[in-house]
Structures are given as structure tokens and as C-alpha cells.
Amino acid sequence: MIELILFGTFLVCLFLGVPISMSMGVSAFAAIVYTGGMKALAPTAGILYAGMTSETLLAIPFFILAGTIMELTGISRRLVEFADACFGHMKNGIALTAVLTALLFSSISGSGPATVAAIGGILIPALAKHGYTKRHSAALVATSGELGIILPPSIAYIVFAVVAADYAGSERVSIGRLFMAGVVPGLILVVVLYLIARFLPRELEVAKTNASAHLSQVMGTNTRAAQPTVTATGAIARTADNTGLITIDEVTPENAEMGGGLSMRTERAPASVVLKAFLKALPGLLVPVIILGGIYGGIFTPTESAAVAAVYALVVGVFVTRELKLIDMFKIFTSAGIMSGRIMLIIASATVFAYVITRNQIARHVADWMLSLTDSMVLLVLLINLVLLIAGMFLDAISAFYLFIPLFLPVLLELGMDLTTIGVMMTLNLAIGLITPPVGIDLFVAASIAKIPFGEAVRGIGPFVVAGIGVLMLVTFVPAISNWLPDMLGL
Fold it and tell me: Any bridge partners for residue 202, and if so which?
């Protein structure tokens, strides 16, 4: 009966539109009152406080602050320019630029939505100019944002380590090992996303006839230009000497005569341009080096590395890029404080929720029930993955960890899965949830940037969800994918 009270109340609150943090808190309090009356609520204040004061969790607000500063000081723009200088000349180079920029910024922010917000404003319009539909542009950038919680330093791995420590028994939960375990799956996802982008259909955003007429009119005075054409990649003008392509929005008699254009160039950027872009992006590229190098070099803990990253971001913004002004400080700390407050409120409520699960041995009952269903490890793991995928459609990663780690971790450990694989598997599940309706917060952010309805963005997300599930299956059933790198490093 206690299970019905706890989970039934939670689901009712969720479907009534109550915020997740409140839903978990109300359901936990209802279960406590049911089992022990109002007097049983006395310890909850201490539980709430203890849940928010873990030293490890202190890394979360610092990583959020560092990511906010980097976003507002032009680091994301510099990362885009560097990736474009290296790969913009390639066929589908803009798609590779989008994915690699997400990879680079993910190693700064540790958050999926933050990654999408930081790079989406630059890359979604660029993808659309290169002929990708807005729904596919939004879908690609939103899915690239998944890397924010898969690659280190990931807030999700920090939360997993904190929660799993209470249920892992004698197994050691290492944040450093989890960070490295996410690298190979993250890189596999990068490759898969780029391959999908290569085969996405490209469509014109305007009627071909109107585009062709407008292009002909603009180029009418250019004697060197060949006959303007319209192709599946967009309305383009090809110069007589075949030196480059240019989009209809950018074409003028002057630049059409020169042939080419920054956003649709076909030639490799000169070494001097690449070097200049690299130097501009260097402060951002150094962030993961400082964070991970400090952790694995034994210089500081993951929590201390987050504080170092925040201070470093401030120094870069004030003295290197010089785009951070005193007047911006209030906005930065307010934004980071609000986001951190939301997360810590979820953690506080989720701690009480997990306390109820542990105190009433609900996790043990669930484990016994699941193990009685079948002797097949494959079927049980697939069932758990299915539940997590569905949960990810409605819950954020932090709430889902506090809800499902107490339930599923004992089952998976009893099935023989190692803790590292479980951590990456659960994180990948919830990363897919970031782009899956009805919630899909990464997709919401990308659709907002693209200025299209959420439903339109959903139409373009299908191939990316399938790809994410494919990577998830690899990680689930090939443990070496997540364990090879941390084992090699001796973590």
C-alpha cells in the first residue's frame, strides 16, 4: 500500500502540472504521514538540509556559474568560429561544426540545456542557411546538447555518484571514473550525429521560382557570373571561375563577383585564419584541460575543480576577452543562482523521496519482484531501459536519478552489471529524454531559438532518437565501451 501512496500521489501531482520538486515532496510527505502520522514528519527538516549540504553537490552551482560566464563572454561564439575554420570547407562541414562545437562547450557547461542555449543562436540559423530545414537544424543542435550530460564534467554524473553511494554497498563510486567513462560513448554519439546529418534532406525555405528571380535580379549587373541556379542545397550563384557558392541571403553584385562566402565556402581556410580562430578559442579550450587535468593530477577534487573553473571563467571574461563588464555581474550571478536554486530544490525534495523508499524497503520489494519476472538478464536490462526512457520523457535527470537509482541499482548489481556501466547507461537514457516529447527541454530550447512550434521540431527528431537508443544499447551490452578508458587510466 505504501508504494501506491508514494508513486500514485507523485503521478497524480505530475499530471496535474505540479512542478517536479513539489510533486516529489508532496508524495514523500503523504507516504510518511500514512505510515507514521504527523509526528513522523519531524525528521524531514534534517533530511532536507542534509540532502542539500553534501560537499560533492557543491560542484553543481560552480559548474553552472562557469558555464553561464562562458556563455556570456563570447566563448561559445569563438568555439563555433574555430570549428568552422577547421571544417567549414567540407561537404556538410556546418553539421560537423555544430556537433564539434557542442562537444567543446559541453566540456565547459556540464549541462544539456545550457549547451543548446549557448550554441543554438549561432548554429541553427547557419544550418538553415546551408539548406537544412529549421526542424532538422533545431533537432541536430538539440541532440548535440545531449553531450552536455554525457561528456565530462557532467552534473548528472556528480548526482549519480552522490545518490548511488547509499545503495552500491561495498562498490566504490568515483566521480573521476564516471567522467572518463562518458568520453568514449560521447565520441561515438558525435560520429553518429554527423553521419545522420550527412543524409538529412535539404529543402529551400522559399519557393524556388521566387529565389531564382531574386538571385537573377541581384546578379544582373555582374558580367562574370555564370547562370544562377537553384539546387537542393538552396538558392546559389556560381561564379564563372567556379570558385565558390553563396546563399541568396548573402549575394550582392560585389561578393558574387568575388565568388564564395564565409558561410558556404568550399575552399580550406588558410592556416593563418585557423591559427587566429584557435587563439581566440584557446581560453575556452583550456577549461576542460584545467578541470580534468586538476582532478586526475590529484591537484583538486571535482568540487574544487568546479570552483576553479568558475574563477577561471571570471578571469577570462574580465581580462582576456574583456567582454565581461561590472554591470553584467548581477545578471550572471542571478541567472546562475536561479538555476542552481531550482536544482537544489529538486535535490532536497528528492532526498526525502529516496528516504521513504529506503526506510520502507520499497527498493528491495521492487528488486525481488523484477527478479521473479524472468531469469533473463537481457530482458530485465531491456525492461529497465524502457522504464528509464519513458521516465526521461517527463522527468529531468536529477529527479529521475533520485527516483530510480534506489529501485534499479540493487537489481542491476545483482544481475552482475558494474557500477560504471550502470552510471553511463542511466545517464544516456536520460540524455535521450532531453530531446523526447512531451517535455524534451533541449528540444524546447532549440525550437525557441529556431522560432518554430515545438511540434514542428518534434517532426525532425526521429532519426536522432533512434541513433541515441542505438548508442545506449551498445553501452548497455558492451561494458568495455564505458570501462576501457578509465581502466586504462587506472581510475
Answer: 132
